[in-house]
Amino acid sequence: MDGLHASPLKTPAIEIVDLSSKHNSDDETKRDDKPDDASLTELDDEESDEHLSLYEDMLDGMPNRSEWDEVGEDQFITESIEAGTISAKKLCTAFGIRPPSLLEGQPDHKYYPLLGLGITRELSKRVKLPEHNTIDDAVELLKRSQNIIVLTGAGISTSLGIPDFRSKETGLYSQLEHLGLSDPQEVFDISIFREDPSIFYSVAKDILPTSRKTSPTHAFIKLLQDKGKLLTNFTQNIDNLETCAGILPEKLIQCHGSFATATCVECNYRVRGEEIYRDLKAGRVARCDRCVRTLRQAKPFGIKRKRSMNGTISNKKKRQSYEDSTDDEEYDIAVAGVMKPDITFFGEDLPETFHDRLVQHDRDLVDLVLVIGTSLKVAPVSEVSSFLPAEVPQIYISREPCQHIDFDIDMLGECDIVVTELCRRAGWDLQHEMIKDNSIDVQLHDGYESRYSFKIKTAYRVELDSEGV
């Protein structure tokens, strides 16, 4: 049963679709209860019926939270998977997780890490700390804490014009539907990259950072560092803007890598990211210069040339090979290794520094967690909150609430607006050219004691330089 008992922080990067998350913001029922049908709204319509049926069937035989201590993980696995009564794939659904498309058709043991993640989630669900509820509580936590973990996602860069991944209409995934893939996330599937890197390269220009401009939220994290309060910034972003903002390397973990460097998939030759920017911007597969030089020295004459795709993708699920023969491309280019930006694709392991920093350093020191601009839908980063000590306060800042984790205080709105208001109330001087003198309206959500919305009362003007992003 390898994989079932693995650390949730050691799983490869994978998108988690949480079937049990609460979509209806008016329902404040705690997640100790078994979720109802309305919780399946994250599924596509064509998939809902199948997964809903599985989900309902599984719930009847599942132990609830209070029974887990008596049943135990080992006994549960023995009576289910080892006994052959149910597959790991179906059990993932029972734990409220829809297996991603990249696992479709794989043997059942390939689902073990995902199932192990689901079991761990069930056993380690975070319980909200009742003493932290108000904005004043959040400000006081900021002022007194000295070892703050800041976990960030794409929402801290959207004010710069950089799209996030999951927003409807404006998110990157919604813009990739024209590619004819079964799932837009396949663009970042490592197995598909190895099969045909042109698919990724055809859209890389849309996520390639083109400016070193940073947001007020980046400035806020830098301010925490300047005040000696930043323990670690764990970022899921690949734009490398934390570095541009001045976050020190020893304070920064780029969980999903960045475009700062690129590595050959054949010979592991690493270069600065700028060296393949021209190919990325042109939608052209970048090749390894060292491989090309080696091949030219070994076979200087008579090599049949190959072509790499220009990024055009044909009908759905009819991917052309990027090594089709032709005579109109670079010398021996198809034999040279493909350069892969050092970002973490779905199916790849996160850098060891992610796990080691949390386990060996931060877990024993952290006194406050700020989760900013992320829906926490990509494991294993999504599991950080539950991994940290239960007594450590956690604050959530983003446009929409996180449905599968109970944070102590939820502050909903544009990240820049929220952190600006927090700094104003703390008496901190947050300096950034995009911050204007605007009055911010803070409202408590009806039916909640610790969820707030932050909105600008007057026009919130974001001024970008003429270069834009």
General description of the model:
With 469 residues, the chain is α/β, with parallel strands linked by helices. Helices cover 29% and strands 13% of the residues. It is built from 16 helices and 15 strands. Strands 6-5-4-10-12-13-15-14 form an eight-stranded mixed β-sheet, sandwiched between helices. α1 packs across α4. The radius of gyration is 24 Å and the shape is globular. It starts with 13 loop residues before the first strand and ends in a 13-residue tail after the last strand. The C terminus is likely disordered.
Short description:
This protein has 469 residues and is an alpha/beta fold. The chain is 29% helix and 13% strand.
Give the secondary structure arrangement, pairings included.
Elements: E1 14-15, E2 17-18, H1 45-61, H2 65-71, H3 73-82, H4 88-94, E3 97-98, H5 112-123, H6 135-144, E4 148-152, H7 172-175, H8 190-195, H9 198-203, H10 216-226, E5 230-235, H11 241-245, E6 252-254, E7 257-264, E8 270-272, H12 277-282, H13 289-298, E9 339-343, H14 352-360, E10 368-372, E11 378-379, H15 384-387, E12 394-398, E13 409-412, H16 415-426, E14 440-444, E15 451-456
